[in-house]
């Protein structure tokens, strides 16, 4: 048995014990009003499953007809967040996430985000919220060599980032909870594909306002729920990323919320932040839904030999197609970025 199989077998008893108590405790009561504007004019946008990890459960996204906000409903509870995040970014999923974070595509995205702040001066201190293992900070330091980068996150990855020298200081915990001790310390606070994971996005923006010095800048990138790709690809659209993404904020809503918090929006961009993986991620999500499952600790037993063979041969057969889709995503990226097919947007706001 491989080392990974041994790790999975070791994790299985805990997962099976949790699942024996049912999934109900992983969800809060269903909302009847929009968490952004409190309107009761809701419609169902999407019903899907956990494509990336194959953990059990069905997840629903509703959309507000009044303000356009898209949100998970019912939302994960504290127990649900622990269950569905576990072994994704850390633990069993750490090696996979590290490979993705070091890929050429990720490095290009990191550098583009860092360059977006160049017109607004050279920051002395920069706090990256939701930093993971600190790979963005390591690349951003090459663009801003005189800047001290600090990182904040819930998981142990932020401590790994500090040990590996990608950040000079690590904060582990809630940004909202830690903001008071970080007051007025930073010239830049960045949130790259972080806000959609949070329970209360407005509180996160308020925390950023607290942590920034007057005149400092907040950099936010999030998936764009108004993207045409989201409509065309439906539940297979990668940025839905259920059940981890709790909120999808339209650009106008985010700009209004920033103004309410005491920011002035100085730049918006619906083009450059596009992540050129839509066709590939949709194909992978679809493939994961039809193939026999791999060995996972939230399954009661390890899949049998025949099932493993079928999965392995199927992946081998479709590998050329996936490689072609990766190439097509990259080839189409310059066109996609110039259209509403772009799947993400960026906002830079100055603390007044």
Written overview of the protein:
The longest helix is centred in the C-terminal third of the chain and has 33 residues, at 305-337. Strand 4, helix 5 and strand 5 form a beta-alpha-beta unit. It is built from 12 helices and 11 strands. It is α/β, with parallel strands linked by helices. It has a 7-stranded mixed sheet with strand order 6-5-4-7-8-11-10, with helices on both faces.
- How much of the sequence is in beta strands? 15-25%
Q: Give the count of helical stretches.
A: 12
Q: Into which percent range does the helicity of residues fall?
A: 25-40%
**Which runs of at least 5 residues are low in confidence (pLDDT < 50)?**
none
Round the Cα radius of gyration to an integer and report it.
Answer: 20 Å
What general form does the structure show? globular
Counted beta strands: 11
End-to-end C-alpha gap: 59 Å
Structural class: alpha/beta
Which CATH C-level class of the domain at 95-274 and 345-351 is it?
Alpha Beta
How many strands, what sense, and barrel or not for the largest sheet? 7 strands, mixed
Protein name: Class I SAM-dependent methyltransferase
Enzyme class: transferase
Organism: Streptomyces mooreae
GO molecular function: methyltransferase activity
């Amino acid at each position: 048995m491989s080392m990974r199989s041994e790790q999975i077998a070791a994790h299985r008893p805990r997962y099976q014990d949790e699942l024996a108590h049912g999934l109900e405790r992983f969800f809060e009561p269903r909302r009847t009003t929009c968490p952004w504007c409190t309107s009761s004019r809701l419609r169902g946008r999407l019903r899907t499953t956990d494509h990336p990890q194959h953990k059990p459960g069905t997840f629903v996204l509703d959309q507000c007809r009044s303000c356009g906000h898209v949100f998970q409903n019912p939302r994960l509870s504290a127990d649900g967040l622990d269950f569905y995040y576990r072994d994704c970014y850390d633990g069993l999923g750490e090696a996979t996430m590290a490979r993705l974070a070091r890929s050429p595509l990720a490095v290009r995205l990191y550098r583009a985000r860092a360059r977006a702040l160049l017109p607004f001066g050279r920051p002395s201190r920069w706090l990256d919220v939701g930093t993971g293992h600190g790979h963005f900070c390591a690349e951003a330091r090459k663009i801003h060599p005189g800047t001290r980068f600090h990182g904040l996150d819930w998981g142990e990855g932020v401590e790994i980032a500090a040990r590996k020298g990608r950040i000079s200081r690590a904060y582990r915990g809630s940004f909202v909870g830690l903001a008071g001790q970080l007051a007025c310390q930073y010239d830049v606070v960045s949130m790259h594909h972080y806000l959609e994971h949070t329970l209360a996005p407005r509180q996160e923006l308020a925390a950023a306002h607290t942590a920034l010095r007057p005149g400092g800048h907040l950099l936010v990138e999030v998936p764009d729920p108004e993207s045409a790709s989201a409509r065309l690809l439906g539940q297979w659209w990668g940025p839905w990323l259920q059940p981890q993404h709790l909120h999808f904020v339209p650009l106008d809503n985010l700009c209004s919320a920033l103004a309410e918090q005491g920011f002035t929006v100085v730049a918006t961009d619906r083009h450059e932040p596009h992540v050129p993986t839509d066709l590939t991620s949709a194909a992978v999500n679809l493939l994961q839904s039809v193939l026999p499952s791999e060995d996972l600790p939230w399954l009661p037993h390890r899949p049998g030999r025949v099932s493993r063979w079928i999965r392995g041969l199927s992946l081998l057969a479709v590998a050329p197609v996936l490689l072609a889709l990766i190439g097509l995503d990259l080839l189409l990226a310059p066109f996609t970025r110039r259209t509403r097919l772009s799947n993400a947007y960026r906002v830079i706001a100055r603390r007044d």
